[in-house]
Design brief:
There is one protein chain. By secondary structure, the chain is mostly beta strands. The chain has one domain. A 5-stranded antiparallel sheet has the order 3-1-2-5-4. Strand 1 and strand 2 form a beta hairpin.
């Protein structure tokens, strides 16, 4: 099982990044649609082992939303 970052659009029209553990990119996409009920998937990438990679990508203000026990990282 690998960890994937799935960039997508939530039901609340927010661009979010989900960190999903799955067997393949297609399985991560299915989990995003079926479990997290996202509208659209933009990009799927594997987790990089570099420390702090997600915060150095140039996104201005990341924050975490906890909805129904699901943590979602939102980049504005």
């Amino acid at each position: 099982m690998k960890k994937y970052f799935v960039r997508c659009c939530s039901q609340h029209n927010q661009n979010i990044t989900l960190k999903i553990e799955a067997e393949s990119k297609n399985a991560a996409k299915e989990i995003a649609f079926n479990i997290h009920k996202v509208k659209q998937v933009f990009n799927i990438s594997e987790e990089v082992k570099s420390k702090g990679f997600e915060w150095r990508r140039g996104h201005s203000s990341p924050h975490v939303i906890n909805r129904d026990g699901k943590c979602i990282t939102v980049f504005c």
